[in-house]
Give the backbone structure.
Amino acid sequence: MDEHTTPADGARPLDGLRVLELGQLMAGPLAGTYLAYFGAEVIKIEDPAAGDPVRGWRVLDEDGTSLWWRSLGRNKRLITLDLRTEPGRAEVRRLAATCDVVIENFRPGRMEAWGLGPDDLRRDHPDLVYVRVSGFGQDGPDAQRRGFASVCEAVGGLRYVTGHPGEIPVRSNLSLGDSLAAFQAVIGVLLALLRRERDAERRGQVVDVSIVEAVLGVMEAAGSEYDRCGVVREPSGTTITGVVPTDAYPCADGRHIVIGANGDSIFQRLMETAGRADMAADARYATNKQRIDHQVAIDTAIAAWTQTLPCAEVVAALTQAGVPAGPIQSAKDLCEDEHINARGHWERVTVNGNRIVLPALGPKLLDTPGRTDWAGGELGADNATVLG
């Protein structure tokens, strides 16, 4: 990987914003990570006995700490409080009174039971933006159900359309539902702050984020297609329903390339590049609607060409022809990708003498970019500074 140095100073868009983060695991904390990356002072509260479980998940560094945590906990002030005790809850109230935003992702009702719900914290602090992230939302018949990302991806319909027809639906080896909910939480924070800025009384508000609904938000017209036409969108394997050609094709070196040539003129350029000028000129394949009826023949012809060449040569030829295409890349490929490195995606930080690579967070702001100031630290690292 090429070295990329992020600026050590410079204004960021959320400088001066103070955020209190309560909860653990993914959706709420990831929202806090994005806010911290773009300048907010985020104070994360963890249980003093164990901390956020992500600290011990997946691949660990030399210090026995998860590399995932180093990313998720970056730029945050880390303190420990026992919210099961009144002294711990009293400290939360004190800190919340100094913050612009509170993010929590406990089960609905837990914060109210602790006297830390939005009504409690906003009573004397009406300008507070209070963000709630849960599996199923704060109300409705399923509000009390536990909802981790995998469950919510299933309930929200994403799992149903993922995989091959007739087989058990699969999931990506990522917490997509949590990430989608985190993005909605960040959007909610920014919208609420914008509204507060424009409000004469500078009132905050409650932001209710459901992981299920965040998943539903990326389901395109699946619900409309069923409601209006009775059509249930099914899994489609390596392609997508109603668009031809767009698929993953084998190459001579064992890799696969994804080609998206659903535009009519793009399809013609693809087939000419593949040595099938006859298909490029064939009226039966002139439009996407017509190509749908001949998907097998088209995909077979494309695969017959791609598997004669190494992946890099197929990409080069299609790029030259103006056809969207790219290899399916592993983590190794991503870390070595020339374009991704040139864009400054990988940021280097040092933790206890060891260099760690963390992914940059988008979007890329040209005048006030976000940055990683430090990786996620040790449990209670900022107790003295924040609570002192």
Observations:
- The longest strand covers residues 41-46.
- Residues 256-327 form a domain with the formyl-coa transferase, domain 3 fold (CATH 3.30.1540.10).
- The CA atoms of residues 105 and 133 lie 5 Å apart.
- Residues 1-7 have pLDDT under 50 and may be disordered.
